[in-house]
Protein 1
Amino acid sequence: MDLKFAAEIHRVGLKVGYFSVKEVIDWTDHLIETMDQPPFELIDVSLAVNKHAADVCSKLKLVKGHVEPTLAVRVILALINRYLIESRDFSKVDFMLSMVKEIPLGDAHLSNELDWLLEWRFLARVEMIGNLEDVRKDIEGFLEKFSDYEKYYTYEECFRSDGQ
């Protein structure tokens, strides 16, 4: 897996609450151990143990390379989908989706769909329109559309050092 792409997945995942700072640090530590000459940016992330998530996100953004902007977001949405299937924890998924909305998505259709879903969730919560069960079904349907992107994030791939 391309290092910039893996860093971007971890940055977005950390920003939305899918990953913790510790998980991101563990990832960078493992990569550093497997690389002959790890990039300074990874070492900088690794040393951010006592930093806030926003600081670690800033450091991850400095990893060199180019990634299609919406791809990492789609991968994280796939991982959130897996999390929802395994945990059924809608409150955490609600939080993560709200945080995804705070990221410039670079895709107007995706942004509009997420806006609508979050707005509908709010209206159902205050009992103005719809009900939470219908919203939950729509959240599941929304997230399921991204399940194919999960193939871009596997433990083995993200922890493999291929020098890229």
Protein 2
Amino acid sequence: MMLPARANDARLFLAAFKVPLMRRATLLFPFISAVAFSQTPVKLDPVKWTANTEVGTNGEVDLKAMAVMEEGWHVYALTLPRNDGPLPTIVAHVPSTDYTLVGSVLEDKPEEVEDPNFAMLVRHHSHNATFIQRIKRNSAAAFEVKGTVEYMACNNSMCLPPVTVPLVYKVEAAAQ
């Protein structure tokens, strides 16, 4: 029987040690497993999110969700021109008796470009973006606002599945 060069070399190597067939398989299994599973998948995480607050007037506070994207990556705006393309970014906050939402979420002005992944005009943010929700505090005590941001990150050749990131905004006690 004619074996390929590598297989023949391995057979000769193991035969030199006069190792029974099952024992050979047992000896080779860790080596084969190490080679087969040595390439662990790389998890792409091109967007980092932070949450902070900025105190305004009349008991109002701005909740700021800020994204920093790796070079070449972007996240989509809150609204998009069409519904048959990428998913828009969604910023949500858990209701609480500590505060009342004032208006809707605002965002930095997005870029409007032709997206090669969807072959359509879209609005997105590159490098960094800030999404702001204003609240009116109902309590003078310190409290936390919990929320999430759901977004889709893309570059010029691929898009990652949508991701939901939890956010926690720490609102300090009101000045007396």
